[in-house]
Design brief:
By secondary structure, the protein is α+β, with helices and mostly antiparallel strands. The protein has a 5-stranded antiparallel beta sheet, with helices on both faces. It has 14 helices and 15 strands. It is 37% helix and 15% strand. A hairpin with a 6-residue loop joins strand 5 and strand 6. The radius of gyration is 43 Å and the shape is elongated.
Length: 522
């Protein structure tokens, strides 16, 4: 006979969710009508039934139980039915009934007790990493896992608690904030005065009586840790390097700390230090952070000295005369030497003009980079030295400085070129700039013939730099005794796509924002 499926709903004791179980019923030798039908219980009907009187529910339940037992007895059915399997059918003779699931407390079964124990070999779940509890149940709190013992954890907890109690006692004694600055007794004041007159600044002032013992102890511990760290840094710095020379390794300026690339001829007492501190406005160099903080509190500079000749958005350019502001220009050259290998100008800054690019905010004008040029250059060099500080690299500031230098050359009706040799990063920046200018010029040019001299006059770029750039791009060919400039549309399209995706459009120099006149030759 074929099998038929009927659906029954079983509701567990600890959940109100409904579970539909398919039951396979053999129609052979059984009568389906003899089995009682179960009504499908839904959540809405269950909630509705809960609103009825409890006595009625109990009475109905007892009546149903009595009727079902009597009907089972009358029909000769088996009263003790075997439990159903997880699939809803009754187990066969060869299957064992499923193990009942207990919902008692964790400690009522042996399996739950085994699960609550720590699984680390050799651990009996005694002790706790925090030292606050006597037992643990997780690996993260196991003392053996952390290579310690319960006794050590307990001792560390007691030590921490003792320190916390001491600090709480000190806090309770300080009922007023003014009590933090205590008035010394006459005897202690005399002792402090004698110590100050005897040793002056060669020794640390006496600290007894100025604060609580707890605060003095914490200060001494912090002082010892700071000295240990500083001693380690100085010892590692004083060890001779492979080049057998000392050099400043780090520079802190404003909110940035920069690692240097090369050595700079700072005075001996500064060059032997592993780290120096610079004021970001006046560029004065200092030895310690304490001196730096005192200087910042007194420094009145908020921008480079000189005249502001360009401003667009949050960027400005200041023209600084090396003759009028000699100290500032010398400090700027010493800073640049830390990141330039071929720079040789340090102290003879009078024949040069410095154009300092800054980024402005509410605190002042922060230096981004600079370039210098000779006041009277025989070879028409428009840049002697150019630098972008490491924290502002790859943001378009380098090309902005280069473009600004060529803008000044065009206003002076000169053909400019950077002074050689260029650094590695400087050479890459100039080649990229020349490439963009030439491709942009060829994109707008509509004639059939082109002259290198005309391109040089309109862009301000030296003819030799134009020829070398065209050769590097593969756009200059020699054919039948003539030099031909190939218009490579693929390079121009690539340039236009790159320009459309450029994120630093504000870094482009706007000639209308320039307020500058060429210096008069003396």
């Amino acid at each position: 006979m074929p099998k038929r499926k009927s659906t029954r709903v079983l509701q567990s004791e600890d959940s109100s969710e409904e579970t539909d179980l398919s039951v396979d019923v053999e129609s052979e030798g059984e009568t389906i009508s003899s089995t009682p039908r179960h009504r499908r219980m839904t959540r809405r009907s269950a909630a509705h039934s809960l609103q009825k009187s409890p006595s009625k529910r109990l009475r109905k339940k007892s009546e149903n139980c009595g009727s079902s037992s009597s009907s089972d007895t009358d029909t000769g059915a088996i009263t003790s039915r075997p439990p159903k399997t997880p699939r809803g059918r009754q187990p066969t003779k060869h299957e064992e009934p499923p193990t009942p699931i207990h919902t008692d407390r964790v400690g009522d079964s042996d399996d739950s007790q085994d699960d609550s124990l720590c699984h680390i070999p050799g651990c009996d779940s005694s002790g706790h990493l925090s030292g606050l509890y006597d037992t643990h149940h997780t690996i993260s709190a196991c003392p053996i896992y952390h290579n310690t013992t319960p006794a050590e954890c307990k001792a560390n907890y007691e030590l921490r608690q003792k320190k916390a109690d001491e600090r709480q006692k000190v806090i309770e004694t300080l009922s007023d904030r003014r009590d933090l600055r205590r008035h010394l007794p006459d005897e202690d004041r005399k002792e402090h005065q004698q110590h100050r007159e005897l040793h002056d600044t060669s020794r640390e002032p006496l600290l007894q009586g100025l604060a609580s013992e707890y605060d003095l102890k914490m200060f001494k511990e912090a002082q010892a840790r700071a000295c240990e760290k500083m001693e380690h840094e100085l010892t590692s710095h004083y060890q001779l390097s492979d080049r057998k020379e000392y050099r400043v390794k780090k520079v802190e300026m404003g909110q940035y700390e920069m690692e240097t690339w090369y050595s700079s001829p700072y005075p001996d007492e500064y060059s032997r230090l592993s780290k120096i501190y610079l004021c970001e406005f006046c560029l004065k160099y200092m030895r310690t952070a304490t001196i730096m903080r005192r200087h910042v509190a007194k420094c009145v500079w908020r921008h480079p000295p000189g005249d502001e000749c360009y401003r667009k958005g949050s960027n400005s350019v200041f023209e600084v005369d090396g003759k009028k502001n000699k100290v500032y220009c010398q400090n700027l050259c010493l800073l640049a030497k830390l990141f330039l290998d071929h720079k040789t100008l340090y102290f003879d800054v009078e024949p040069f003009l410095f154009y300092v690019l800054t980024e402005n905010d509410s605190h002042g004008c922060h230096i981004v980079g600079y370039f210098s040029k000779e006041k009277n250059s025989i070879l028409n060099y428009n840049v002697s030295c150019i630098l972008t500080l490491p924290q502002y690299m790859r943001q378009g500031y380098g090309k902005m400085l280069i473009d600004f230098s060529y803008l000044l050359s065009r206003i002076e009706s000169k053909i400019g070129s950077p002074e050689r040799p260029l650094s590695d990063l400087g050479l890459l920046s100039y080649r990229s700039y020349w490439k963009e200018v030439l491709l942009g010029y060829l994109h707008k040019y509509r004639g059939n013939e082109i002259s290198i001299k005309d391109v040089s006059q309109e862009t301000g770029i030296n003819a030799n730099d134009i020829v070398s750039t065209l050769q590097a791009l593969g756009m200059l060919k020699y054919w039948k005794g003539k030099h031909l400039v190939l218009r490579r549309q693929d390079l121009i399209d690539e340039f236009l796509q790159k320009k459309a995706k450029c994120r630093h459009e504000s870094r482009q120099v706007d000639p209308s924002c320039l307020k500058w006149t060429p210096p008069v030759k003396s």
